[in-house]
What does this fold into?
Amino acid sequence: MGRAYDLPGGATIGARGTARPARLSPLEGTAIIGDAKGETVAVHQIRSIVRPATLEEAWERRRSEPDASRFLAGGIDLVLYVPPTVSTLIDLSALGIAAVRQEGADVVIGAMATLTDVLESPLVGEVAGGFLRDVLRRVASPLQRNVATLGGAAVRAHPWSDVIPALLVLGARLDVFDGKLSTVELSEARARSESPSPLVLAVRLPGASRDGRGAFEKFARTGFDVGVLNCACFAIIERGQCRTARVAVGGTPSVAQRLPRVEEMLAGKPLSASQIALAAQAAADVVDVRDDRRATAEYRRILTAVGVRRCLEDLADLGMEVKE
Amino acid sequence: MRIHLTVNGTGRTWEVAPGDTLLDVLRREGFVGVKKGCGTGDCGACTVLLNGRAVNACLLLAVKAEGGAIVTIEGVAQGGRLHPVQEAFLEAGAVQCGYCTPGMVLSAVSLLSHNPDPSEAEIREAISGNLCRCTGYVKQIAAIERAAARMRESR
Amino acid sequence: MKKSKSRAFAVVGKSERKVDGLGLVTGRPMFVADVDVSNALVIKVLGSPHAHARITSIDTADAERMPGVACVLTHKNTPATRHTTAGQGFPEPSPYDTRMFDTKMRFVGDRVAAVAAETEEMAERALAAIRVEYEELPAVLSIDEARRPGAPIVHDEPDATGIYDASKNIAADVDIDVGDVAVGFAESDLIVETTCETQYAQHTPIETHVVLASLDADDRLVLRTSTQVPFHVRRIVAQTLGIPMHRIRVVKPRIGGGFGVKQEVLLEDVAGWVTLQTRRPAFFTLSRPEEFTSSRTRHPMRVRVKIGVQKTGLVHAIEMEAVSNTGAYGAHGLTVLANTGSKTLPLYNKAENAHFFGQAVYTNLPVGGAYRGYGATQGYFALETAMDEAAERLGLDPIEFRLRNAIRTGEGSPIFAKLGEGREGVSQTVKSCELERCLEVGAERIGWASMRGKKECRGSWVHGVGMSIMMQGSGIPEVDMGAATLKMNEDGSFNLLVGATDLGTGSDTILAQIAAEVLGVPLAKILVTSSDTDVTPYDVGAYASSTTYVSGMAVQRAAEKVREQILGVAAPMLGVSTERLALRDESVVAEAGSSVTLARVCQRAMYETDQFQIAATASCVPSESPPPFLANFARVAVDTDTGVVKVLHYVAAVDCGVAINPRLAQGQVEGSIVNGIGYALTEEMLFSSRGRVRNPTLFDYKIPGALDIPRIDVVLVDSYEPTGPMGAKSVGEIGINGPIPTMANAIYDAVGVRLRQTPFTPERVLEALRRA
It folds into this structure.
């Protein structure tokens, strides 16, 4: 059944935790729960699942029914929540976009590769010292990682996503198809709002990131949890100086964003303890944080400073091994 | 719509609704060892193997299993002989109410089929998505270690 | 005290495999929902969107007409019997304040109506077609709001009974004292006072509540249900539906965890009513969100403890004031409140002056119920925090301070008699107490001497160790009853029929071990049937840590009666008098050496001479409740950058008398410790300003997983309880009381801040560090 399910109280849980309250009638103090249209009712609304064999077919199907259709990758997010208008799912598993390959200097990860596939890929392991693999190991549990796809994670971009900050700091790009092939920066792709958004074919880790190093901090309540905040940092360090520095903070509770002011502070300078402290403080100053049920804005600000500092210390091989 | 898959080694053809999850279908078809604990992928009680990998059946649309090989808890013991993981669970006292046990066993089976000599950390990670409220995980981790050792010995 | 080393058991004391283990590990159909339910109607509930509201109109006409709908239930067409849902012995010490479907809703998620339909989807569509109009009422969303003069009254119905003072939202009130604490404090050299608060928490059994109701061939109502209290279910469903008890059969198959949340009659009356009206089987289960909002929870409590200590290090006066939030209905309100004092204060029996008082308060929030620990968990937070503070101010090692004050073997406490479960208790003397040994073993295991006060730092992490001690009980004296029937088969095997309820705890197994021990047979020769009200004799069910001690003694007595019968048959066969006979190795063995197999004995009695069925039934109503004891030690690391608390090592040294099955006993303690760690660190139900639960999912209500547990050492200390079956006491609950106070004390050792509100989330810890 469509996985919008009722909370007692008339609210509906959609994607993990976003609840829409019951409609209140104009009459003060009374509420009408539900109606025949079923907005607050979980229904078995998926009517068909098609499995096109070509990109053109897949795109045409999607383009022709933008509100009634969705691409189906691993399907986890769709099982948990599918918008009420959707009746057709377009399964991408026959398009041959699951492989991980080397293309010139780039490592190209097919959008339908599962997070486990990516975790186990030796090619991915060669990029930035295996940084993406380290991050993916912190995502959910093996049960989800065996089904969730990297493309799905990049597109769905949950606010707490650990994948997005990692890809952002790696300078990842997306190979997309919307009738024609193109490659766009991840941040640019996310900023675009056309509907339907293009079909993601692959996540491209650029060769330029190969020799950098990444670090990741995730603050969560338990080990199998989304983060209340996460930080990803990437740097290419030459002769003790940061040639390139990228910093992204996510789960603020919004989805991860890079912090250009902090990156500017680090670029071209040595990654010293004092520089790290300044950068961490700057990150805390600029980060856009809010309260939600998992943490307060103030606490997230504190975590931003701690997380960025620890990531940068990790990159610089500074600081003690802080494993209790 | 119709899906074709193998379940515990036997080919099946099942009529499913497009929105059915694998959990819905498996339980409907009599594989009641696959448990429902939450329906949202948070507890792991519905774990089955899909092509050798442990997955939440409640998060998998049934059509995603098309052409695949599913193993449920009912298919772990072979001809009445328990799998070393099952044997170890019984021996170690790792089963209390038993509701999380099928999922836990399958996550362990999946781990050991890919990593025959896991560290304790790797064992914990493998069952990190399987929640248990009875045991505190202590004896389950010990059971998996013991099963791994036995399986290595018998190679 | 005598140790059990001198006793040589054949089956008891062995870590035998669980008798139901094979089926569980191979996924056999053993749970309620594992039978063919395709023919059953599915029941879904419409929950109240308001915390406090009257239903002014409810129109189900559209819903009833929808395809696949068999019936729609509301207050208009269901029995109005006020009852309690609490699974307790009759007369239940909980108010009769609940109706199956009421005209007034008292919390978000309260039951407005229900639909029974062919499929879940059809039922949900029909729910959406029910038209309800509410008169919203102002709600009370905290203890303080509820107790304010002029506060809205949660229970203003005229036909509720057993409420202490409904006009003030007081469901229950307790006030007992020993000596005079005012004098006691005046005579003390040091006063320590602390107030600790615990949060709304939920049991999260991995299997939610579920029941399948059906009619058997004689049109009797059969309830196949996930319950801890099958006999209370039968009685309360009969009461609520107004049908004779003998027309109901309750069967508990395997259940997927309870921890107290299934000590409640929540779904069975509704499912039973649907089946009786439609003559169809009815399947009713709670979704995970409903399990959070609309089943039962831990009672949040505010507990103030004041202790007066003399220079000698003896606690001279203890005052404990407990206020509990019992939520919208009063099930277990009085008894959890009373237990907060009755399971804590006797521990420090040297205090000649004690005062325990408190109230259980109604609010328009989810309903508190039975949860492992049952009030003691909340009480020990405050008590062991106060004791830790007092030890520090006296300059005494916390362990030494406990040793000076804790109850010992041969001692009693006036609290035992004054405070039972909701009424007067029963006087008793402790006959087994190995606390000293528990403390010795535990301290050594954690490395107490080398770590305490050291505040070892690793980066931003600071380490500390803390400890606490506690007791619980073994059943409710002079109230609880368990019974067992044993019958013999002609191959020398026995059927053991017990009402006792195995929630996964392994009670079927340990009860079989006791019988096997008495009868001199291996475990495999005892075939257990449990928790079927038609077949098994009465048992209160699984709560109050009663099973091992109470049901176990019933089994022992039944086995002893059967042994006498066997010996009586065998005596003429061997030409030896019964005093010279013993049961061993599946035979009757004479002192002189001759023997006859049990099979031969039974064949003779069944087919040959003076035929009769070798069988017996026995009961046990305990006259005391010997406490198990526990010493907890924890090593934690506190991250001073983020406030994150990690438990590194947790040691629990337990005295549960003789452990009938050491591995199962250990498993009980390990599981309850991890549950307690979650309760201490991460679990918290959060509410909106309108009383709605904001996180009714395992996604946002975080319980410990395999990645979260520390190194856990559970040591079962050698002990022997003379009044217990084979020397056993119970052990099911006590472990969960440890983590909160132990970790609070460890955090103090590490970073010098006392946390008085659970859970100890990173934000709270960091806030406390900053204020310090």
User: Anything to note?
Assistant: The radius of gyration of chain C is 27 Å. The first strand of chain C starts at residue 41 and ends at 47. Chain C touches chain A through 62 residues (CB under 8 Å).
